[in-house]
Design brief:
Largest sheet: 4 strands, mixed
Order of helices and strands: HEEEHHEH
Helix content: 40-55%
Structural class: alpha+beta
CATH topology: Nucleotidyltransferase, domain 5
Strand content: 15-25%
Low-confidence stretches: none
Number of domains: 1
Length: about 110
């Protein structure tokens, strides 16, 4: 039942958020163990850059929220390397709380604007 509600929220959010070349979409997905972040250009249907906590040994020993903060900084640095300064934040139906909020704060810390 919880997944049905998240899927409904995700669709409602995605109706309003569309990533362009000038302002791509920063999408966050979280599982029980890992967190993923992608910067997507919806007009070309392309993933411009992405990162995740899977296989990153430095993030494995840390708490999930701390790892998400570092992941946000990492995706922010990758975006700046690809000359992306502004993004539209897509929380994918999750509440803006905990790990999702940590990714957003990390990306802002790295210099992304949204």
């Amino acid at each position: 039942m919880r997944l049905v509600g998240r899927e409904r929220r995700r669709r409602r959010i995605r109706k309003k958020i569309f990533g362009t070349k000038e302002r791509p979409r920063l999408c966050v997905f979280r599982s029980n163990q890992h967190i993923y972040a992608m910067i997507i250009d919806d007009s070309q249907q392309k993933v411009l850059c992405s990162t995740s906590s899977v296989g990153d040994k430095s993030l494995k020993k840390k708490k999930k929220t701390v790892a998400a903060l570092e992941l946000g900084e990492k995706i922010g640095k990758l975006a700046i390397q690809h000359s992306i300064k502004e993004v539209a934040f897509d929380r994918a139906g999750y509440k803006y709380h905990g790990r999702v909020k940590a990714v957003a704060e990390g990306a802002r810390k790295a210099g992304l604007e949204f």
